[in-house]
């Protein structure tokens, strides 16, 4: 990277949980003042066509030691994706790799990627350049929303090392952020997922090894490259190291995006957003493809291990608070209906099964006196799970089954034509 040599540079590592939003402005100069330049060994190789640097293995090893997982939802170890893409791009007769920054944020409850790209675009660009250097890619793409694209384009234009990065605008659709849908969007301007028969790291964009990384993942990667794995792990827990961005929304006083230590309890996150506006009924963790955690378990940490008994995971860092002033079943039916409408229309079980499942859940929500309805929801959920080209049916089924389980007493009340929130 060509750091402007006349700029004062703060090379000390950030302390505390405020790591990603330290720059006093969105300019490249403000970014360099806050974080300093990238390590000197990588920059030359980050220019277009420069190929993989000799120390790419060091970057991958650093990420493995840091334990950084993907922040787009799936939580896959970042070093593994890099290592796999690099190995497929460096074999005999292999084709050059492609790297895509994914800022599409199709999850309606999430605003973290929006906040990050609005306030710290250069950290994301640093991460994109580092990934490209590590896998030897000269073809770089930045996938973002129509609202944020001008700012991203401006940030890229501010620095000589990033002018070859191409910006693409994502459509507003739930599945548009799925990694294979991102590749399809870049390749043929159609944002629909594709079969995962071959991993993208082996054959993605036009059959080339392709690395798709969420923008928060890239920003965290840029900090690890500067300050090291040990620094990254100096906050958070052994299993959930570092910080993560969390969107706390729903029935809280001040919905907002927070940067918090990994493993922070849900109750602490809610308090940091000004507290719940009424007694909490349940919290939806991970977004619309997530699962509910009931109110008595609000001390549960935002960690994969602690959330697994509820079928939840940190996912894209969404904590949606539902107060007892709202009917959980009505809320769940509304979300299930939205998800059914977001099917990309390619796979029969998804196209037909999701609307059927949402329809039955809506009948329960509207207090239909029909005792077999919950069993029918469970049957449909079983029918669609594992039957799509992407994880949309599985995520939707998981959410619906979690709703029936956590709001079980509401289900009983509704089947008796009453409602614990709205009465008879
Ligand atoms: S499972 Fe649904 S959303 Fe996914 S590719 Fe098939 S039709 Fe599209």
What's the quick description here?
Helices cover 40% and strands 12% of the residues.
Q: Order of strands in the sheet with the most strands?
A: 6-5-9-7-8
Q: For this entry, what is the oligomeric state of its chains?
A: single chain
Give the proportion of residues in helices.
25-40%
Mean pLDDT rating: 88
Shape: globular
- Total beta strands: 9
| Count of DSSP-assigned helices | 16
The sequence of SSEs as H and E is: HHHEHHEHEHEHHEEHEEHEHHHHH
Q: What is the CATH T-level topology of the largest domain?
A: Rossmann fold
Distance between the termini: 66 Å
Taking all Cα atoms into account, the compactness measure Rg is 22 Å
**How many domains comprise the coordinates?**
3
What portion of the residues fall into strands of 2 or more residues?
5-15%
CATH architecture of the largest domain: 3-Layer(aba) Sandwich
Classified in CATH, the superfamily of the largest domain is NADH-ubiquinone oxidoreductase 51kDa subunit
CATH class of the largest domain: Alpha Beta
> Main β-sheet: number of strands, strand sense, barrel status?
5 strands, mixed
What does the model show?
By secondary structure, this protein is of the alpha/beta class. It has 3 domains: 28-232, Rossmann fold, CATH 3.40.50.11540; 243-323, Ubiquitin-like (UB roll); 328-415, de novo design (two linked rop proteins) (Up-down Bundle), CATH 1.20.1440. The chain contains 16 helices and 9 strands. The chain has helices at 28-35, 56-66, 78-90, 112-119, 121-135, 149-157, 179-188, 215-227, 229-232, 266-272, 304-307, 328-341, 348-365, 373-384, 392-406, 408-415; strands at residues 98-102, 139-144, 166-169, 210-214, 243-250, 256-261, 280-285, 291-294, 318-323. The strands form 2 sheets. Strands 6-5-9-7-8 form a 5-stranded mixed sheet, sandwiched between helices. The protein has a 4-stranded parallel sheet with strand order 3-2-1-4, with helices on both faces. The longest helix is centred in the last third of the chain and has 18 residues, at 348-365. Mean pLDDT is 88; it is low at 1-10 and 43-54. The structure holds iron/sulfur cluster. Iron/sulfur cluster binds at residues 175, 192-193, 343-347, 350-351, 388-390, 392-393. Residues 64-221 form the NADH-ubiquinone oxidoreductase 51kDa subunit FMN-binding domain. This is NADH-ubiquinone oxidoreductase 51kDa subunit iron-sulphur binding domain-containing protein. Residues 332-414 form the NADH-ubiquinone oxidoreductase 51kDa subunit iron-sulphur binding domain. Belongs to the complex I 51 kDa subunit family. GO terms for molecular function: 4 iron, 4 sulfur cluster binding; metal ion binding; NADH dehydrogenase activity.
